[in-house]
Amino acid sequence: MYGNDFGPPDEGVDQVKDPDRDTAHADAAAAALGEGLLGEVAAAEAALAEAAGRTVGRAAADADEAALQAYFDAVIAADQKIEPRDWMPEKYRRTLIRQIAQHAHSEIIGMQPEGNWISRAPSLQRKAILLAKVQDEAGHGLYLYAAAETLGITREELVEMLVSGRQKYSSIFNYPTLTWADVGAVGWLVDGAAIVNQVPLCRCSYGPYARAMIRVCKEESFHQRQGYEVLHVLGHGTPGQRAMAQDAVDRWWYPSLAMFGPPDADSTHSAQSMAWKIKRFSNDELRQRFVDMCVDQARSLNLTLPDPDLRWNAQRRAYDYTQPDYDELMRVISGDGPCNRQRMAFRRQAHADGAWVREAAAAYAAKRASDREAVPA
Ligand code: BYC
Q1: What gap in Å lies between CA 316 and CA 338, rounded to an integer?
Q2: Residue 174 Cα, ligand 1 centroid: separation in angstroms?
Q3: pLDDT score, position 58
């Protein structure tokens, strides 16, 4: 049994020191997922509150399209938020629906690979933690669907686009969780990559998405630590446990790097999304940030990253690393990954099985509404 032994996270860690490594950088990287990224979330939250107090002069109600566009551009330039009541270019609205919906679908489909281990978690405590985590992902999906709904699309339409396959979800959830160590690897790497990607989204120009991301990132940081702790126990456990953890990291490393999307040169939406301040950093910038964080954490875990070419580059002040297989990413996105069919079949079945719950909830809401109407004023 290896789920019950919670020790201090860094007890007995045999850190392999690389003499060429810049230690200041290493300390910063080790701290990055703790105070660093959460500090950025707090700063984004403060900036949101501050932006709400400033106002770029509103466009008049009868303004023509050019004046509305000028107002929109001024709001973006002033780092204020576009709110649902504001005019926005149709392409901005559609880009947000695409990205927020894909994000929401990812949270919902992302419950499957981890849910796979709830009944087999190695202790009651591990099971309770994993249950809470998977439940959080459902909550994240709900915040994000609610944010997308403010753009004038209904929940039913969004869900239909997922189950019909018209909208995507993150490539990463099409990989299988083969052992208990995969739960740790998903937490450490997948949630870690998700946080690196999502912290800048707390500063997204669309208010409802930015606000949802602040809450998601705070919760996601616990998820990352949960995975880190699972791997820490295994990485310092018996030789068999360490081998299981290493095998999981070997399988999840490159798919996690691919989560950030195609390289900048092939990213179709980045330039426009950055101009609109939906995205704040390019796919490659965030991927690099993630790699730089993971190297030091892997050492603490007593594990290695499966990249023989991973090297500190003093000139760039960043690690050189091997890119993920982007052809594989495109295959997985287009539906041909190891678990795409299984994930979609399960989601469709769950949706069909839940029809009676939706009907009952709608009937209850209708009854409440008619009861309220029946009450004399
Ligand atoms: N998987 O122009 P690009 C999570 C698509 S974490 C699937 O660079 P963009 C969670 C992209 O949609 C995961 N598709 O696009 C964690 C576009 O396709 P279309 C979810 C991908 O939008 C733990 C095309 O490739 N996170 O939820 O500028 C537990 C060209 O790409 C992927 C988010 O969704 C991919 N990996 O940048 C549970 C974060 N990468 O529509 C849950 C929000 C690219 O033109 N999203 N594509 O056919 C984003 O930050 C951005 O949408 C991306 C892509 C960085 C992912």
Answers
A1: 36
A2: 13
A3: 67
CA distance 174 to 340: 5
Residue 376 is predicted with a pLDDT of: 74
Q: Comparing 25-39, 62-76, 129-143, 277-291, which segment has the lowest mean pLDDT?
A: 25-39
For the chain, list the strands marked E by DSSP.
311-313, 318-320
Burial 268-291 (b: 16+ CB within 10 A, else e): eebeebeebbbbbbbbbbbbbbbb
Assess whether pLDDT exceeds 80 at residue 119: yes
Average pLDDT value for residue range 111-122: 96
| Paired strand residues for 206 | 82
- Residue 319 Cα distances to 314, 316, 333, angstroms: 8, 8, 27
For atom 10 of ligand 1, which residue has the closest CA? Answer: 107
> Is the Cβ atom of 197 under 6 angstroms away from ligand 1?
yes
Element (H or E) spanning 63, and its range?
Answer: none
Residue nearest to atom 50 of ligand 1 (CA): 197
CA 166, CA 223: separation in Å to the nearest integer? Answer: 29
Which residue type sits at 185? A
What is each CA distance from 16 to 183, 188, 228, 293, in whole angstroms?
A: 25, 20, 18, 16
